[in-house]
Write a structure and sequence with these properties.
The structure holds two protein chains of two kinds.
Chain A (H helix, E strand, L loop, with lengths): L1 H17 L7 H14 L4 H13 L6 H13 L5 H6 L4 H4 L2 H14 L3 H10 L1 H4 L5 H16 E5 H8 L3 H14 L3 E4 L5 E4 L20 H5 L2 H4 L1
Antiparallel strand pairs in A: 1-3, 2-3
Helix pairs in contact in A: 2-3, 2-4, 4-7, 4-10, 7-8
Chain B lengths: L39 H15 L3 H19 L8 H4 L7 H18 L4 H19 L9 H22 L7 H9 L6 H14 L2 H9 L20 H20 L2 H8 L14 H17 L3 H18 L9 H21 L8 H20 L2 H14 L21 H16 L3 H8 L4 E3 H7 L4 H14 L1 E3 L5 E3 L3 E6 L2 E6 L6 H21 L4
Antiparallel strand pairs in B: 1-5, 2-3, 4-5
Helix pairs in contact in B: 1-2, 4-5, 5-8, 6-10, 8-10, 10-11, 10-12, 11-12, 12-13, 12-14, 13-14, 14-15, 14-16, 15-16, 16-17, 19-20
Classes of the chains: A mainly alpha, B mainly alpha.
Subunit structure (chain A): Component of the eukaryotic translation initiation factor 3 (eIF-3) complex.
Organism (chain A): Ensete ventricosum (Abyssinian banana)
Family (chain A): Belongs to the eIF-3 subunit K family.
């Protein structure tokens, strides 16, 4: 069963690479979107190809499929996939209720308004439930933004960002302490702090200084002179 | 959003200098144009051109194509088309391929100097189909100048864009024109255009050629794509190469920036390559590459490339003053300054812009850039204005609905891209304020900064995270690239600011001076003193 699915996915990717400007592959691409949803995989190229074909043949556009593509794109954050998809969706279609909701959700995520995001998401469970793995993907994005920004982040900030509290939050933090190099610390006023792993974004001294670096090709230009 | 820049391009074709008395609607009906009359100079022209093509004398072909054709057009065909292909065919042995090439030039001249009718647009499409089919079947055995081959692809995409605009303005069409649209619904269809470009890329195997060249197994860039020894045809190969740029352009017109960049990927623009041999192709490549990166929020990449090309144009535009592409070069130059102004307002940088380019930029846009950094209503108007001026002419690719009510929807695609762009600008609204505060401090507590910015602490935390998110773009391989010149990190509730100081680039400076002096020394060595 798995092998067959793998082969089918291989064929669709091939189609997109070799023969993308072809209305006959529209149905295959739609099936592929559903497959991405059920098997929790993702292919930006195939989905953009489908949105292009919808642009060429507006009569064949399916709003439920577009909704699924957009949810998948949200899950790909911080990559700008959601905007890339919106560029290809006509204005009238963007007025559909579900799509308007997704645009609002994207806005909250883009501006790091996690509290408002989770509130709005809760109100729209029915739309989002369609795609398994949504919550985890957004939580991963939230952690990503936190690790760009903080060396030491207070517990309430994490809680709000990933929408987990209480015992579940304890479990979540324990997991990351064990597996992702997080360290629990006590901040002032005895609040809990998570020390996030050092990377070049929250520890600028780790940033490689490439300002005075030169591409090797440029240096080769003076080799004839030096010899 | 009303903007002061006229977006309608069908009647304001600034691609070529147009004489003020250009014929209106329906070329060939004014001033007693006789398609069958062939002046002697034209006779000589086609006979010589045909001979040079047969003899594969690329240099002479280029002289005739770039020089004689323009001079004859200026002298004799300012406001009328060239003689029809049927009239000149007898002088060139009725050679099928030559006639297709002549017709391509014929239509290009028509678009530049006059206004093509609906029927002529369709006929031009047919001509391109025949021409490309012949090339794809591998039966074209000639070497043509790169300028000509680039112009073919460039014109192909341009006429497609022009037709989409034409087709989307239904309100004032006559019944005859509507009937033509109904009858020839396959003309300039988007699948055809994309598939021809794709076919040229594939059939020429140009990506393989470029790959092999990287490993030193093939000469391509070194000979500018020509085959000086073997004399094999360069037509399919070069059309394939230029079609990659054509595909980038078409995808930008559709709003699909990601795929456009993918189409360009086999060409390494950090190196010299065939794409910058013809200045038109160089400018078109960088313009669309930069624009796509701007829409993908990769501001630093866009700024870098715009800076390089604007510097190049500054240095070398004087050599192209006589060329028919000069106006187009100037126009794109101005548009790229506008895009650079936008990029630098969204993502200020200290030392990415060369000083001559920077002074030109300040001359043109200093006031506007100050306004854009303020992020009030006036700022949005400026972003709107510059985007409208500088963006590609987006198209609606689907076939028109030819029933009542007939509307003009040629601006829909542009309006969507503009709306989404301004939406992105709005999301970055508060970042400029954060940046100015961060520049003043090396550390500051979250509470104090929130007070200065007149927001509460949780809001400030979200603003700071937004700054981090927006200023770190994700490139094609999923890597995170920092874009900001002012950076920070938060430790519990203290913000520590890190400003990247503009460092002197000694290495680069020495390198350039070494090369310059070496050049001077070899120049001096060459001078013989009597």
């Amino acid at each position: 069963m798995g092998r067959e699915q793998q082969q089918a996915a291989y064929t669709v990717e091939q189609l997109v690479a070799v023969n993308p400007y072809n209305p006959d592959i529209l149905t295959d691409l739609e099936n592929y979107v559903n497959e991405q949803v059920s098997s929790q995989t993702y292919s930006l190229d195939a989905n953009l190809c489908l949105l292009r074909l919808y642009q060429f043949e507006p009569g064949r556009m399916s709003v439920p499929i577009v909704v699924r593509i957009l949810i998948k794109a949200l899950m790909a954050m911080p990559a700008p996939d959601f905007s890339l998809c919106l560029f290809l969706i006509p204005e009238q279609v963007q007025m559909e209720e579900q799509i308007k909701t997704l645009i609002v959700l994207s806005h909250y995520l883009e501006t790091a308004r996690f509290r408002q995001f989770w509130e709005e998401a809760a109100k729209n469970r029915s739309t989002l439930e369609v795609v398994p793995g949504f919550e985890q993907a957004i939580q991963a994005y939230a952690i990503h933004v936190l690790s760009l920004t903080y060396q030491k982040v207070p517990r309430p900030v994490i809680a709000e960002a990933i929408n987990i509290e209480g015992l579940s939050l304890d479990k979540f933090l324990e997991y990351h302490v064990a597996n992702s190099g997080w360290v629990l610390e006590k901040g002032h006023s005895r609040s809990q702090l998570m020390v996030l792993p050092r990377n070049e974004f929250n520890h600028p001294e780790l940033k490689k200084n490439t300002v005075d670096g030169m591409p090797f090709e440029h240096v080769t230009r003076i080799f004839p002179i030096l010899s | 959003m009303a903007s002061s820049y006229d977006y309608d391009d069908a009647s304001l074709d600034s691609r070529y200098a147009r004489p003020p008395s250009a014929g209106q609607g329906g070329a060939g009906t004014d001033q007693g144009y006789d398609p069958n009359f062939v002046p002697d100079s034209v006779k000589t022209f086609v006979v010589h051109l045909y001979r040079h093509i047969r003899e594969k004398n690329v240099y002479e072909i280029h002289q005739m194509y770039d020089g004689s054709f323009q001079r004859l057009s200026d002298r004799m065909f300012r406001e009328s088309p060239w003689p029809s292909v049927e009239a000149i065919a007898p002088y060139v042995d009725n050679d099928h391929v030559f006639c297709l090439l002549y017709r391509e030039m014929w239509f290009r001249h028509l678009y530049a100097r006059l206004s093509p009718t609906g029927r002529q647009r369709v006929e031009s499409w047919d001509n391109y189909c025949s021409l490309f089919s012949v090339v794809l079947h591998g039966v074209v055995n000639m070497q043509l100048p790169n300028q000509w081959l680039w112009d073919m692809v460039d014109e192909f995409v341009y006429q497609f864009q022009s037709y989409c605009q034409y087709r989307a303005k239904l309100k004032n069409k006559t019944e005859e024109e509507l009937q033509l649209l109904r009858q020839y619904d396959q003309a300039w269809n988007v699948y055809g255009v994309l598939n021809y470009l794709q076919a040229l890329v594939e059939k020429s195997a140009i990506t393989d050629v470029l790959e092999r060249e990287k490993e030193g197994l093939e000469q391509f860039t070194a000979t500018d794509g020509y085959d000086y020894e073997g004399g094999t045809s360069n037509v399919l190969k070069m059309l394939g190469y230029y079609s990659m740029i054509g595909l980038l352009r078409v995808h930008c017109l559709l709003g699909d920036y990601h795929t456009g960049l993918k189409c360009l990927a086999p060409i390494d623009i950090s190196q010299q390559g065939v794409y910058n041999v013809v200045i038109g192709s160089h400018i078109s490549t960088i313009y669309h590459y930069g624009f796509a990166n701007l829409m993908l929020r990769r501001y630093v990449e866009a700024i870098r490339e715009f800076n390089k090309i604007l510097l190049y144009i500054l240095k070398y535009k004087q050599y192209h003053q006589k060329s028919p592409q000069y106006d187009q070069i100037l126009k794109k130059n101005e548009q790229m300054y506008a895009l650079l102004a936008i990029c630098l307002s969204l993502c200020p940088q200290n030392n990415l812009v060369e000083e001559n380019v920077n002074s030109q930029l300040r001359d043109k846009y200093n006031e506007k850039m100050t306004k854009m950094l303020r992020y009030d209503d006036e700022a949005y108007a400026v972003y709107d204005e510059l985007f409208t001026y500088a963006c590609p002419k987006f198209i609606t690719p689907s076939a028109p609905v030819l029933e009542e009510p007939l509307t003009n929807y040629n601006q829909d695609a542009y309006r969507l891209q503009l709306k989404l762009f301004l939406y992105e600008v709005k999301q970055q609204q508060l970042l400029s304020g954060v940046r100015s505060f961060l520049k003043l401090y090396s550390t500051i507590s979250v509470g104090k900064l929130a007070a200065y910015m007149e927001v509460d602490e949780p809001t400030l935390r979200t603003i700071l995270m937004t700054y981090k998110h927006k200023m770190h773009a994700v490139d094609g391989d999923g890597k995170i690239i920092p874009n900001a010149d002012v950076d920070f990190y938060i430790s519990e509730d203290i913000v520590h600011v890190v400003e990247s100081k503009p460092t002197k680039r000694y290495g680069d400076y020495f390198l350039r001076q070494i090369l310059k002096f070496e050049e001077m020394i070899s120049e001096l060595d060459r001078i013989k003193l009597d």
